[in-house]
Amino acid sequence: MPALDLSIVRDTGVRSNDVMPSDLDALTQNTDIEALRLAPDADLSEIVDALPRIQSIFIEFPAFTDGRGFSLARVLRKRHGYTGLLVADGALIPDQFAFALQCGFDAVRIADAELKRHTPEAWDAALDAFDLAYQRGYAVKAGPATSIFDARLSRLEDQKTDDPFFGLGAEAALRRAIELHEGDLFLASSLGADSAVLLHMVSRIRPDLPIYFLDTGKHFRQTLAYRDTLISQLGLTNFINVQPDPAQLADVDPTGKLHETHPDACCAVRKVAPLKHAVGHFGAQVTGRKRYQTPDRASMPIYEQLDGMVKVNPLAYWSAKDVTAYIRRHNLPPHPMFALGYLSIGCQPCTTRVAAGEDPRAGRWRNQGKTECGIHMVDGKWEPLEKKETFEAF
């Protein structure tokens, strides 16, 4: 039977009937156990000593109304520290997929009868629906185990929001924004560590959407190569490189070393002014901002109506794990600098590697007291933001 692993349909590759719970002799022998099946009423004390030798555990779900298997998974992960493959096996329904991940399951293996009623596509959609429509962070693997009923109650409370896009998945929000702001919407891409996510979504919905990239003349060569790779691989047909005005550069930064003495002035001439000139006629912008990034964004809506500019934030409710899962699911190429320790990537002179335990944006303008380039629009005006953004590692 197929298995669903973080909304990817695949085969688990293990035989689930190698060892039955009643076969205590096999559990007491000092040999590795490829797979073990547990009934929902299994006594975990009988297998605790053998857990380090068990590669996979399949917990049976005889009916979707029987939730004892969720409790077993939570106890195995939290109390006993089991680290092997954990599979929910049986008569589950898509509504329970996100909750299974929270309780510690790695995959869900669906009974044939249920697959006839709920297709793999329905299961794939369920993870996104629960994360974005029910409760922020609900579908995070091994996250806080909030019951489905509590999640639905939370959604009823959240429906009081003024966000007209509330409850939409990321692609649905992007699609609606494009329809609503036809010809008046753009995406500014930094070609950073997670930029491929939105670019991929755009390629599937409207590959000719205007996408602006600030070609400052100071980027890593890897960033420029990454830009070309994504344009070619995704088939983006309206990718626009925005460059500084040569006359302004000659006047303000004739030696090309302005970043060493006045980084704010360098950003102003290479980023703020060129972007303002290029997109000043648009009324709406798509951003990659997410609620988890800063305290100020914790309640950020998907559809944000500001003075002078509408911001559409399709990924507002996503976690860093959601970003990673999307990149892996669609086999998107990572930024080549990410693997080298650059977790937030800007211009080469002002970007350094990030050490273990540091804030991912610690490598931007290190030791300069500067945290933003100044291209964020606040209340209809292009203003610098003083607070440093923070990100989960993914």
Automatic annotation (TrEMBL):
Q: Where is the Phosphoadenosine phosphosulphate reductase domain?
A: 185-352
Q: Which GO terms describe its molecular function?
A: 4 iron, 4 sulfur cluster binding; adenylyl-sulfate reductase (thioredoxin) activity; metal ion binding; phosphoadenylyl-sulfate reductase (thioredoxin) activity
Q: Which Pfam families match?
A: DUF934, PAPS_reduct
Q: What Gene3D superfamilies does this protein map onto?
A: HUPs (3.40.50.620)
- Identify the InterPro entries for this entry: PAPS/APS_Rdtase, PAPS_reduct_dom, Rossmann-like_a/b/a_fold, UCP030820
Biological processes per GO annotation: hydrogen sulfide biosynthetic process; sulfate assimilation, phosphoadenylyl sulfate reduction by phosphoadenylyl-sulfate reductase (thioredoxin)
Please name the catalytic residues of this protein: 373 (nucleophile)
Cited function: Catalyzes the formation of sulfite from adenosine 5'-phosphosulfate (APS) using thioredoxin as an electron donor.
Q: What is this protein called?
A: Adenosine 5'-phosphosulfate reductase
Which species expresses this protein natively? Algimonas arctica
